[in-house]
Structure formats: C-alpha cells, structure tokens
Amino acid sequence: MSETVQTAEAEESAETRSSASTEDLLVQEGDIAGDYLEQLLDVLDYDGDIDLDVEAGRAIVSIDGGEELEKLVGPRGTVLEALQELTRLAVQQETGTRSRLMLDIAQWREGRRTELKELGKSAAEKVLSTGEKVRLHPMTPFERKVVHDAVAAVKGTYSESEGEEPQRRVVVFRES
Amino acid sequence: MSLLADALEHLVRGIVDHPDDVRVTLVTTRRGRTLEVHVHPDDLGKVIGRGGRTATALRTVMAGIGGRGVRVDVVDTDR
C-alpha cells in the first residue's frame, strides 16, 4: 500500500521535473552553485560577491572581490577550471542532471577572452600572409573555443585542434 | 592549516551522496603533510572520478589556496 503511494509520488515528481522549463533548471543550477561557492569563500575568509546569470543556455556564476580571489584562478586559470568542474559536480549532485555551468572569477575569462581573440586573429593573419600553418601552445577547451571563433572570423583561414588533453592545441591553416 | 582541511571537507561534502560521512584529517609523516579524505565507501568513485579527474580537481584547488606541497589522499576504507 505505502509502496503504491510512493510510486505515484515518484511519477508525479518526475513529471514536474520534465515540465519545468530549461530556464528554471538553469536558475536552480546557479543557486546551488552560488551556495557551494559562497560557503567555500566563507571557510577561506575571502571577500567576494557572487553574481548569477543565465546566458546562451547555460548558468553563469561570476565571483568578484578581493585580491585573494587570484588564488582561485591560479596559473593560466587552472584552479578556476578545477573549481568549475567541482561546482558542476555539486550541481549535478542536487539536480541529477549534468551541468554546463560556467564559472568566472575576478573576470579572468573576460580578460583571457580578449587576449585569445587577438592571438587567434594575428595567427590567422600570419597564416594568410605566409601560407604556413601555425601551431599554438596547448590550451584548455574554453581557450581553444575562443581561438577557433577568432580564426573563423578571418576569411581564407580555418583551424583544428590536435593532440590529447592537456597538450591539445589549436592549429591554424590557410584554405587551399 | 585546519582551514585547508575545512575547505576540502566542504568541497567534498557537496559532491557526494553521504555528506555526513565525510571527514578530512591532516596527517604529518616523515614524507610531509597529507590531507586524508574519508568518505562513505559508496562515494569513493564520486570523489575519485573517471580517470581520477575529480581527485585531481580537488588537488588543484587545494594547491591554489595555499596547500602546495600538501598531499591529498582519498582513503579507501576497505583497505
């Protein structure tokens, strides 16, 4: 008897979940991530404001504040990537679905994005003028995506990724 | 130092099925300091991750917040 009731409840909650819009899920992802990170800042006694947003179909969590936040970015953003990975797992633990949440700290991604756009553009221009392919240094998936987009904006060139993580890198070619 | 243990404990608690069973202890041996992570046996896989990916992420974050040179060990309690 009690089993029947539980099953009915489980079905109902499954239905509620599927009817909830993606937007609601993304907002929920942001909330869970915000709590997880806020408590981390508390433990570490770091100053930081957490901003939640939903953009292009994913939750965005940005932390801005004191200088010690640089430690959570780390060399070439490695700590930031690791913390993003853990935050996604914490979200998945609560929602039961894989998260594509993006974490940014101290606007590192914004700054890096600007640098990488420049790098992609100048590599593509070099390839155009010399005809020789250019291999860039190893990058994270986020960094490679920014470079691919910048190369795609330069007519007559294209790019591919080669190698295995963490040595995977972008190679820029001239269209034949 | 207990700050590192507290931070690690918080990070691990958020990603497991049995958060109340998470314990992090700092152990000092001749080889240096180690943060030992104890979790419910069913959560071992989660904390280690595929190919050790999650454990690596935990180590990277700990190194970032000042735990460079401190080992992070996920303890298999069945041992």
Automatic annotation (TrEMBL), chain A:
It comes from the Bacteria. Pfam families: R3H. SUPFAM superfamilies: R3H domain. Residues 110-176 form the R3H domain. GO terms for molecular function: RNA binding. Residues 1-24, 157-176 are annotated as: Disordered. Residues 165-176 have a biased composition (Basic and acidic residues). This is R3H domain-containing protein. It comes from Kutzneria albida DSM 43870.
From TrEMBL, chain B:
CDD domains: KH-II_YlqC-like (cd22533). Belongs to the KhpA RNA-binding protein family. PANTHER family: RNA-BINDING PROTEIN KHPA, UPF0109 PROTEIN SCO5592. GO terms for cellular component: cytoplasm. Keywords: Cytoplasm, RNA-binding. GO terms for molecular function: RNA binding. The lineage of its organism: Bacteria, Bacillati, Actinomycetota, Actinomycetes, Pseudonocardiales. The keyword Lipid biosynthesis does not apply. This is RNA-binding protein KhpA. The gene is khpA. It comes from Umezawaea tangerina. Pfam families: KH_KhpA-B. A probable RNA-binding protein.
